[in-house]
Amino acid sequence: MRNKLVAVSITALLVAGGWGLYALGERQGARNAPSSPSKAIDAAVATAPKSADAASNDGKKVLYYHDPMVPGPKFDKPGKSPFMNMQLVPVYADGGAGGKDASGVTINSRAQQNLGIRTAEVVTGTLAPGIDAVGSVAWNERDVAVVAARANGYVEKLFVRAPLDPVAKGQALAALYVPDWVAAQEEYLAVRRMSASDPSHSDMKPLVDGARQRMRLAGMSDAQIARVESVGKVEPRITMVAPIAGVVGELNVREGAAVTLGMPIARINGLSTVWINAELPEALAAQLKPGSRVEAKSPDGAVVMGKVGALLPEVNAQTRTLKVRIEVDNAERKLFPGMFATLRFKPSARDDMLLIPTEAIIATGTRTIVMLAEDGGRFTPVEVTPGVESNGKTEIKKGLKAGQRVVLSGQFLLDSEASLKGVEARQSASPETSVAPAAQQPPRYHGTGKVEAIAKDQITLSHGPIPALKWNAMTMGFRAPTKGAPKDLAVGANVDFEIQPMDDGQYQIVTIQPRSAPSTGAKP
């Protein structure tokens, strides 16, 4: 029994001693702990290492370091921020805040290495972008010959039987019997015999010439008339021949059929050249012109060379494409109408084009910019006019000069920093508007939050996310409005506020007013 009492007593003493130590720690912690988030910031600043003077690697004097996400506190040496666990950013003595100055963004060499910034030189060269497409082979409508009847008659013999039969130049197509030629030829032969039997009749010569003219009017050619004169016999038949080599595109008669003057008997399509019709987006078609070289590949792998014959002046309203007609040499007859061919366009290119890597371009939607790397670690946004692009290179028509250097990686971060300071606004403003103070007003950002502390020149807020600045919810101090905090503003109030960046890297509250309902985005 005595042992149990001793054990209970010891346990009670231990519990009492532990509680005493816990209470003592609570009181000590309460005395040491800051009474507000602003005091927490002050405590974090106090624990950061200090240095009396600092300088950047490139020799520029550094006034202090700060955290861009919490720009109020200032540090005397580089290191990690006690708030956001990120590297502190230097503020230089030449007026630059966070590595930024009035003409762009300035970053020391160490920060450039940490950010992985790469640059490339603007060079002069030749860029011949290739355009790939698929086209359909068609007849060359300029290489067509129509064989028509020269007089009324009948088809006695056909030497070709069906469309698409191949024919050679001068090959017989059809033999026609022409009754009208018989009378004209007999009259001519009779007059000529009378003239030959009595040479003293000088008035017979006009009759011979008139009979010869009537044969021409009947549709006979000079060669046929000469044949009648040489043989002295009537030639009532005519053989129609192919004027060019190719295939029979159309055959409009059969043996025994009657034909009239001018009636088409056959149509011959040449195959020495063919057309390939392709449709290209109007933006790509603008890079071509008649005479541009084209490489065509048939389904069996045969490659033939051609050129752009014409850009047809009509855009397909549904597909927004322009039809391009390519004329291709087909002497070996590798391509036939209806066949598909793979095309490779090779637009002509100048050899004095300004070229930069395509990855350096930032397309904002309204304009295109690049970050120009200058001496002293300075980076400036420059608006450019791009041209054609091929093989990772882009032509620059306006905005750059040969020998300059552009940023290839990290340019989006640099552009964001430059935009935050209003560099682009100042550069794009006209001379008239750049003089006006209103044109140089920094942008404003809206947020909601809760008032944590109010000082003479600073208001500490627990705010929700601010997407425009890519800020998450956090507690931080802002410079008080120029006219001071509103009289009805109290600690714990849920507020709507607007902030804008200052030249020293801090953010100042422009407007702040209590909300009628608690803020849903404020961080408790």
How would you characterize the overall build of this protein?
It is a single chain. This protein is an alpha+beta fold and 524 residues long. Helices cover 22% and strands 37% of the residues. It contains ten helices and 33 strands. Strands 5, 6, 7, 8, 23, 24, 25, 26, 27 and 28 form a ten-stranded antiparallel beta sheet that branches. Strand 1 (54-55) and strand 2 form a beta hairpin. Helix 4 packs antiparallel against helix 5. The longest helix has 31 residues, at 2-32. The two termini are 55 Å apart. The model is unreliable at 21-55, 95-103, 423-439 and 517-524 (pLDDT under 50).
Number of strands: 33
Question: Which spans of ≥5 residues are poorly predicted at pLDDT below 50?
Answer: 21-55, 95-103, 423-439, 517-524
Oligomeric state of the chains in view: single chain
> Level of helix content?
10-25%
Question: Major β-sheet, in short?
Answer: 10 strands, antiparallel
Separation of termini?
55 Å
What structural category characterises the helix and strand content? alpha+beta
**How large is the share of residues in beta strands?**
35-45%
| Rg on CA atoms, Å | 47 Å
DSSP helical segment count: 10
Mean pLDDT value = 76
Overall body shape: rod-shaped
